[in-house]
Queue: 2 jobs
Job 1
Amino acid sequence: MKHLKATTFLIAAALAAPLAAQQEGGRLDVVVQPEPPGLMLGLVQNGPTQLVAGDIYEGLLRYNTDLEPQPGLAESWEISDDGLTYTFKLHEGVTWHDGEAFTADDVVFSADVFLRETHARLRASLAYVASIEAVDDTTVVFTLSEPFGPFINAFEVGTMPIVPQHIYEGTDYATNEMNATPIGTGPFKFEAWEKGSYIHLVKNEDYYVDGLPYLDEVYYRVIPDAAARAVAFETGEVDVLPGGSVENWDVPRLTAMDNVCSTGSGWEFFAPHAWMWLNNREGPTSDERFRQAVMYAMDREFMKEVVWNGFGNVATGPISSKTNFYSNDVTIYDHDPAKAEALLEEMGYDGEPVRILPLPYGETWQRWAEAVRQNLSEVGINAEIESTDVAGWNEKTSQWDYDMAFTYLYQYGDPALGVSRNYTMDRIEKGSPWNNVEGYENPSLDEKWATAATQVRAEDRQAIYDEIQTEIVDDVPVAWLLELEFPTIYNCDVKNLVTTAIGVNDGLRDAWIEE
Amino acid sequence: MPVLATIVSRLIKAILTLLAIAVLNFFLLHAAPGDPALVLAGEAGAADEEMIAQLRERFGLDQPLYVQLGKYVWGILQFDLGYSFRQGAPVSQLIIERLPATVLLTLTAFVISLVLGIAFGVAASARVGKPSDSLLTTLALLFYATPLYWAALMAVLVFSVWLGWLPGFGYETVGAGYTGWTRAVDIARHLVLPALTLGLFFMAVYMRMTRASMLEVSQLDFVKTARAKGLSGPAIRRRHILRNAILPVVTLAGLQAGQLVGGAVLTETVFAWPGIGRLMFESLAARDYNTILGVFIVSAAMVILFNVITDIVYRIVDPRIGAKA
């Protein structure tokens, strides 16, 4: 029995307690960009929604920056030796923000009914779940049909937010009027949303963890212009700039100011991994030698230093070094224009133009595409940049109308959750930009991805993932670029802001302000 | 009743124009790549085909285009702008929420630019060729040529970051809980920079136009007659020259007034002003069809309304126009 006792965590928490006592009270102003389309986390899971709603809703577990599970709504849990039964013991005395009692039935309703219908990403994990049962008011048992190693990572708030059964059961979830005033169990309650200006959350006085949260209120501020967001931080109007909310070149200037702190931590669970899809179906990019030439042609160190102002790491392959089961036993593609030219010569590249599709997420991405184009033209590849907006990018990539397209994807702590979806043949399907868009086909690797996901022992999984990484890096299905880092910039008076693998998304529970 | 007849005929034309605009915009939007389901699903970072199909069905995008158009136009005829699936609210509610902020901003900018533009134009024409005229003309040219975006950022940098006199963005102090006069003053302080930035360009246009027009009219024979009668300089300028020189300015003001609803996208973005321009821009990026169409229709209605008002103002300023009709 792998048994994790609550007392272990109480001791750990006691040891981790800082010397200075936390101070209660205060107001925190955090930038949210762009304005979320809604706050009902079970229905909408985009970045801004997770940032705000991660304070309102909770998952069964939280994860520390080493991706180890920590108590959330569940105070303890155990996994059977065969990896098929997950038993969660829930906190006693938890209430929803409207005063109703939270019970195991809410968990069953959320995972088995509500999210099965609304949450595409969780649905993939739930395919392995045979049944979810409430044994009593505070005990829930998930029974799997076959072992699924990454399942323990599926209980984070954005992956499996627990939603109130008494509000949603039997209603049309998408049009339920309560979506406008979300009710969760989290440390902060929804107070007001002034569209275009701010979202106001207030302290949940009845929160079930004694003494938490410390803050009285939180304002999520909507400031649409990147330069204005930087100014808002400079003038002290906001205290926290979550990762990605200012352009990279503003970061050194802001962090050089007095009493300004920054951290790259708080993204371990997501491990955003950037690459270019290379269209494996047609054109020069369908030739493996061309794809390898692209890897050798690119000076990714330079891109990291100049385009990303030194943030991030050069990616070695499909799995981020922050994600479980990473291996660095792979071919390393250094910046080597001569090798690239030789490969192009060998394949007889005739100068056929290739189109580069940048991600329409701001100046940084545009400049990144320009840097790539420059590198490619140095080895004789005739590349053009073809820009579009977000909707156009979605359309082009999901209809495979591109040669090289920038993208980045979250990995969710495990290759089976966030990596394999981009490389296996069963994930080749037009109409979605979140699968095997490049059209990579390797049946023997497909089997390995599948086997690795369903092993019980971590060592067995590691061995298979090692093999996969060694082989796939030679095939270059996509051109891996960087493990991205989005630094969180904040006023140093704010303490304990980033303590988990999803950072600011669920960090305000423990945050406090030093007067 | 020629005036009434004109207004009625204008109104009928206006309604037809509005419908034509709605249909045209509908097709333009649907011609753009991508759709709201793909954008919404894309933002979740891990959609599958099943989810996208679900969304399309919910949004009614799975129906043939002509059915969607028919439903939309039928809604418009009943003053129903439709529902924003992205934001989960009726479009009319979204627009009404944002309307006060936008009108406050654009109307203030409108008044500032019109009053100052005409005043400076008259002043410059009275001192034509003198240093003060050159100064005003140069300033006007500068304001005219400065990109709005840059002017806005510089204004924030100087007055908000360096001097700390005025708030750099937002509509009011968030969470201060002001009421009554304190709140009005707070909003007014937030209004200064965006209204000035937005007003500068049109102020320059009005000033240059007033000045040129004043100079032109002052050469005409009836002005000589007035002078010969022995009228004073200021009286001639006010009652004879300005009254005749103002017509082109009225035309232009009518055009600017038409943009009162949707014409401040940049200003609203830089100053985080919670107005309709931003709603439109963000909805466009998200392909939130109903919301964009709704904003377009309200904007178009405003343009048409102000064209009618401009016509009426013409008649008041220059009675000859009504007589000819």
Job 2
Amino acid sequence: MKPRDLTDLALRNLREAILRNALTTLGVAVGVASLVAMLSLGVGLQQLASKRLSQSGLFDTIFVTPKNSFRGMGRPQREVVSDKPPRPLDDDARKELEKLPNVIEVYPQIRFFTEVRFNNKPFGTVVAGMPESSRNAGAFDGMQGNFFSSPKANEAILQIEFAKDLSDKPSSLVGQQLTLRYAERQAIPSTSADTGADTTGGFSVVPKELQLKIIGIVETEPAAGYGGYGNARLLMPLQTASTLRAAQVNDLRDIVRGNTENKATYASLSVRAKSPSQVEKLEASIKGLGFNAFSLLDASKSLQTFFRVFDSLLGIFGSLALAVATLGIVNTLVMAILERRREIGVLKALGAADTDVQQLFFVEAGVMGFLGGILGVAFGWLLGRAITFGTNVYLQRQSLNPIDLSSVPWWLMIGGVIFAVIVSLIAGLYPASRAAKLNPIDALRYE
Amino acid sequence: MTDPKPAVQLEHVSRHYTMGESSVRAVDDVSLTISSGEFLVLLGSSGSGKSTLLNLIAGLDRPTSGNIQANGQNLASLSSLELARYRCNTIGMVFQSFNLLPRMTLEENVELPLRLAEVDRAERTVRVREALESVRLSHRVGHRPTELSGGEQQRVAIARALVNRPKILLADEPTGNLDSATGEAILSLLRELQSPLRMTIIMVTHERPLAEQFADRLATMGDGKLLSSAPVAKGVRQ
């Protein structure tokens, strides 16, 4: 029989016992809905975790340091593999890194420990310069106040824990001024005895102050610590921070190691990749240029593995309802064989082959699976939204920000329908084969 | 009107069933030749093996032994799929209980063999109309079988059997559920349709007067055996 005629007949058969078939389809829909809802929660949680982590900017960022960078105290020194002096992380290196493929931006890490005065009281903290691109990274979503008005503004955003140290009512800090006290690095000009040329022989440290206006308070940690640095609790525009020429750890290192070239070097540079998937390749390229490169990709991979296992478990639990629904399909189709025994006999007497009868029952099972799948995806989506809604009502009562707990991506929608059809076809295997094997003479005699 | 070339040839055909420890010889060593265009009636009491023989010719069942040649094909050599094609293209079947599908309209019932034969939709419509016109029911195409009388239902069943233009029409007690006048009208219709289609009709019945009125030849069966086979005298038929 032609596929169109087969489908026609199957749909007609399904319409004839509409209540029973609708209930069976509903059973499939409930099964698919449970599967989709479970997986949508898994996917939603994964996205939520990934979003929170990516807001820290750690997963698409590679931290580049020179090969001779300091190790933490008490840690063994790296093995020296070459007699050549290591490449300095200077402006030339920065330009070279900017030219690498899939690099969005390269910016220096400006991070120093200093003292902040507020209401004439001193508070020690780590200050970090934030690039303009971090405005859209998501870390500042939902902050109190605003992001920096310009890349060169004398403004500060405080991390909530530091803000709590400054005041019992952190929100009242927005709009107030604080004083940043820092050590400015000033080069000492020295004259060479032989040539009479000026060379940088070192630097002096001069105490300076800068008034900063507090314009926002953030709850996340946009400049989380790494490589031995503490978490920065006072954030200011990167350009403003760089003009301070505040003394940093590498300044001392350069003096000690006798870096006599008249070039500014960076303690570290942050290289942002277009996406986390390009981090691994980029990291290898940077290492090839003669620098140390470090990313949190491995942590991200572990997270992905965890969520795969988590999603599989949710999928297995969600599939249980679908397994019960398949029994419903088998039951419905076996009942249909008993009811349509005579009809099957007539079809065979008129020239239907065993395969025609088999395909007819297959199509009926497939149609129930397809419709059940579509309904199930819709129900699953609704269920996910309902769970998200309930969770958010609870979170709001606890004065917490709402979250998007469930997510039904397109692959889950299409996958849900395909899975329902496949499961239904498998459920239709036995009834279809039983119908095909029916002896037409017995079937015609059946009353 | 009959063609000397045989439409169906049975050679020592037997069909035995095993029921518990005993063996039932439903058809026992039957040899019979039915010419093309012939109207043969199989007579006999209940359980004589008439319907079993008809099912064997239809390819719905296979003989325990012996050979059946139908329309030049040896049925024993055909696979299950080939037998289905044979039923679809060569055979038309009419049953005592009509066997129309109650949830389909008359048009859809008659269309069913054409769907199985994968005939194009446009041609199907034409042929269904023709078939229903030939049994004078074209005005009731959209009706369902339950809305028709017994005689009308059997006419629809005949239209369904003839729509694929079969070479051989097998009718199993087609008048069994009808009153005598309607039964006579049905057989009269079959006789009327037989000539233009050059069709061979093999009909099972136990109503001898009706058989003598319409058949070319009567074959009588008893206990699975063919007891006699004789042409109907022209005078009797008329």
